[in-house]
Amino acid sequence: MNKLLLLLILSFFSAQGLAGECPDGSEPVKSVSADGTYYVYNCGGGNEQTSSSTANSKAKAVAGIDIENDPNIDFFKPPRKPYPTGNLYYFGYKWQMADFNNDGYSDVLYIGVMKPDNSNRTGENPGSECGGGACKGDKPLPSLFLGDAKGKLTYAPELLIDNREDSGISLGYRALVADYNNDDILDFYVADTGIGTHNGFRNSYFLSQPNGTWIESSETHLSHSNFVVFDHGAATGDIDNDGDMDVVITELNWKTGTALWCLINDGTGFLNKRQCGGIFSFALELADMDGDGDLDVLLGAHEQEQSINFTGIVWNDGRGNFPKHNNTRLPQHIKNYPQLPEVSASDLDNDGDLDIVYSRTGILYAGTAIQIIENLGNKKFKDHGIFPLVEAPDDFIPVSEGNEWNDFIEDIRFRDLDKDGDIDLYLSSSMSQKTNGMVLLNQGDFAFELLLPNVAKKYVTIDYKAPAPVSEEQKAEEQAMEDELAEFEAELEEELAAEAAEAGDAIAKRKAKVAAAKAKRIAEEAAEEAAEEAAKAAEEELIEKELAELEAELLEENKSSPLFDGRYSFTISRYNENDGSMRLGDGYIEINNGIMTVAKEGRTLDTGSIDLYDSFEGQIDKKGNIMSSLKINVLIGKTNLFLVDLNGSIDSQLQGEWDHYYDVILKLGKKE
Predict the structure, then answer these.
(1) pTM for the complete prediction?
(2) Three-class SS of residue 568?
(3) Nearest by Cα to 111 from 132, 133, 96
């Protein structure tokens, strides 16, 4: 079996803390640390806290990944679509594992996609599933399966109640599990992108009740109960550090000017919606990436799309806001795996900070990989590169997301699966049996072994807390069966020994014949292998030659050309469809041997020093195509400098994007 070694390591967990008494005599409030390894106790109105980690002077905010990766619950690979989910859901079958009813056993919550009555896909993704309009039909509820001491999962539909007139879920994309109403029982919020359009669908919010049920509570516990948003990314966590769990969702309709919506918990489970900054994205997770006790947002993009190509971190301002300019970009891999459907974080190198794992895919989800980024501290990061899991053929061109090479990783979970003190990675995908259940087994020293699902099964098991008792009668029956089997094995050994004695010479001759045949086969295989290697080397040499010729052609095609040498006037402006156009300055561009620079004299810039023009670099090829860049500020009275790529041709304007909002436009005049 081929083994893929990946650079990763994860920390393991410390013991739970013990609570004391607050100075005013009240009981401290318990919460889980951000890394899920200990409890934190805070006294109301004070700064005192007691925990097993004395190094933390500030209580860390709890994130959804702490609940998802709780080491204190049994973890196992749940069935892909247990009955009746195959009848309820069109596709999806995403799951979350937790102890929902507090009985000490792991339960599983499934969400999925409705089965449309008017299915008629006309495009490349579920947004066109019903001919470009909204899908119609019955919407299923989430499915809760309760675990027991025997490891059996029992479907419990009577526990989930949705009294809305239009009940159920359309395309349940994320189930955010947390104790929102602070009754020590887990609740869940379902981010619903909707099937049939790209306009989104209203979400669902199930809160626990004293009678052991969960009631959909949007009408009573959401400030905007029918709020519709295309929230491809969603996460839960205590973003304002006030001791209760909030929700953050993405807004993919960038025309609204809102990237993230934050649903702020008032402590009772009532969520108030407000804008909270951020940058347009697809994948989202909450994690304390700088160790300051506040949860930051990890974002993943469609890096091939200019309007939503930010992959990185937007930092929490300490009040539950994520100002878009306070960000750190992370390395991209646009060529082969530009789409990021999922992101998570854990301490992979045991140095006390959280590192990053991205799920990546090719265009239209063709091909699957993960990316690992190391947190170096002080908001510095190191890319450990791309690790392919399933590679699509080079000549494969997908026409829809439902292609045969869509094996993308939906969820990344962290567990010590082999019980060796290292945390391993468990990958899940409801869309693919090839990747669902893959394990990255930690070998230490930043080495991980990739185990395919069929091999990983032996590590993904459950240690039952209370095995079913065995009666004395059952024990006697089992012992009788073992005795009978032992007697049979002894008789078989005697028979084989007798046969071997009688046929010793024949066996020896046969062994010699087999050895000769084996030697011949090995020699033939070696010759075939040598021939294959020679053919492969010749093919690689031919490919390298063709690549060299192609690179030479491209180099010649893009080579700077003196055909357009001279002096040209220019104007530079900014544009946004909401703000309109505004002229920023003008000057002259000089082209010498195809190299473009801004002349020192006669240049103006209303939004900064004219010396910024000295950062302009450009070249023009023999066809008049121009590639250039300029570091510029487009806001009057501000000092926000961004490097803008300005591309176009001698006969058209040069254009590029400034901070994901404004287009910078440089228009050339006629040659003087």
Answers:
(1) 0.63
(2) strand
(3) 96
